[in-house]
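>> received
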Amino acid sequence: MNYRMRVQKVIYVFLMVNWAASHARQEEKSLEERLEHARALLQEVPLIDGHNDLAVNIREALRNRLEDFPFEKNLTEMEPWASMEFSQTDLPRLRAGQVGGQFWSAWVPCDSQYKDAVTQTFEQIDVLRRLFDKYHEDLQYVTTANGIEEAHALGKIASLLGVEGGHSMDSSLAVLRAFYRQGVRYMTLTHSCSNPWPDSSVVEEQTDSKQLEFDGLTAWGELVVKEMNRLGMLVDISHVASPTMHDVLDVTRAPVIFSHSDVRALCVITRNIPDDVLKRLPENGGVALVNFYSYFLSCSGDSTIQDIVDNINHIRNVAGIDHVGIGSDFDGINSVPEGLEDVSKYPYLFAELLLDPRWTDEDLKKLAGLNVIRVLREAERVRDELAGEVPWDQFIPPEDTEGHLNCSNPWS
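>> returned
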């Protein structure tokens, strides 16, 4: 054995001994000690969740009548919320979970496409804005990275808006700009349906009835991405087909997000992110926020907090620590991991990660929210850089919507 090989062997043994010692020290700590550590970290930096569907439950249960929504109470003890399998959020539990920032989703179903999607989406934006106003002592409406940090410093939950599904903009760049003026800071390009300009992950399943229509983004879809960059709106590529993911990464000048997605290497479904896309995140600067839905985590109705850890670690291993975060999808999922059943349980995730000596305090802070803040701040920087450019204002080509629109602007 030559000298270099002996040195390498000594270094390897040294590192392994230190790793084992560190791991043993962490295991010696009780769960309560690790929870105390986690809670201290979440006081220092905001825990930012990339996706929560509370608004659609308010619509379905109360027709958006906020006066009948007791958000300040424990909804597990009140009907209809106690019986709803999609109800995982209220103010007491958000506080228990030390949530510091939340992207609240304005989602409307795919069957509203080509009908009243725009109206329904503005109604959902409206109910969220009214929710922020009603509970302003706890929720602070923000639209910037600095706003998130300011809200956290005040002990409030920074509340941001996201639109889930490009069908909500009805193939209109004017509507996209109106969303931005109403405070929307990300838009998911598709939901569980394709729009006239991007392919959804649903059609990637390649059954006889579901074929990729555009092989990613159309030329007009590229304009949507460019206009989002110009506005400073994050491009969210959860729910889209893999070719759409790659096309967006080819076009965008700002970091992307996956607001609520898991990894395909651990659960082979088209809704999850393939590794060849994850490998592109470091160059783009984007972030993948891990979804808590059992069927995406483990491809079954059963999952545990360890499945979340496995997805987080996979993204870290493939893309790096700067490109992973949390996007629970709470209030939009009806199968949740054992140990992380609602918004009150986030500290348990960090306590679990503290068993792994690879996770330093600085790493955990990035996972909690610093990565999301960095991405939003970079989108703002790109917006400022593009401030002199005129808006992209082309109508979608009529042939792209042919057969879909029964009534349309005759000038388009």
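>> DSSP finds 15 helices and nine strands in the chain.
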